[in-house]
Amino acid sequence: MMYRSMVRVVVVAGALGLMASSAEAQLGGIGTASGTDKLRVKGCGKGKAPAAFNFTVSDDGTWFARDEEGYFFSGGYSAVSAKKFDLRFDSGSEALFVANLENVASSLCGQGVNVTSAVRQKFFLKVNKKRTKAKVRAKYSLTGTAGGEPGTAKYILKAAGPYTEVQ
Length: 167
Description:
Low-confidence stretches: 5-25
Mean pLDDT: 86
Number of domains: 1
């Protein structure tokens, strides 16, 4: 499904093995993540698909990921704690993410969907103490129209996998 790409990107972004030193996040690592992503469109139904991707986190505060379908996503991050990092898409990746969600929502609704707002509720990467495993979580609230009628949707991504620090 189309939202696999979004999930993979989100997971990749999250799994970007992050390293932190005190209040500043310094990362450098690579990883793979797999899990599921879900999209629930009010009045149209819900979809669930497996998600998998490879990702890289750089110590300059940026990350990038590539999903199984070849979609490329990137962005920045900031430290929430020594093990948890808040992820953001860059503008091009966010536009691709929203376009993928529109495609999946259109399929669920059986008609064209236009997303007018995608609000990030959470999008983070969390590493274990040894920095050998990473989890990526994302949750977005969407508003838009389907067939000219207003509507809402929720997107959730949960993925995890091995992570390796690179220095």
